[in-house]
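Workshop exercise sheet. Pairs work together: one partner reads the sequence aloud, the other fills in the structure field after running the prediction. Swap roles for the next sheet.
Pair: D.N. / O.F.
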Amino acid sequence: MTFKVTDGERGAWAVLHVSGELDLLTSPVLRQRVHDAVADGRHRLVLDLSGVHFCDSSGVGVLIAARRLLRSCRGVLRLVLPDGGSVEGSHVNRVFGALGVRRLFDVHAELADAVTEEVPPLSA
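Structure field:
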């Protein structure tokens, strides 16, 4: 399967739909797209990972770096990861669980949930 990142918008949220394998070869593409979105002033970003069927540690590293980047500019990052009922969701969720990083992210099962919930105010 070909790796692809497509842009979208849902209200105040920039959405990057990611599909394919997120690995050592493709993770720099996602990293650049996140940086481009932030450089364009988009500080509310959703990464829709529902089309990702493989993610290695370099892909997870890009997601952690994206979280750090958004937090540094007082932005918000949300991830869309389907629940374990789908093949794609179960793999990425297993990787997150194995690495213990799921708690770092604001994860939603559906894109509609990720873009409709209110953003809590930043704490001091």
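Discussion prompt: Residues 14 and 37 are 8 Å apart (CA to CA). What would you look at next?
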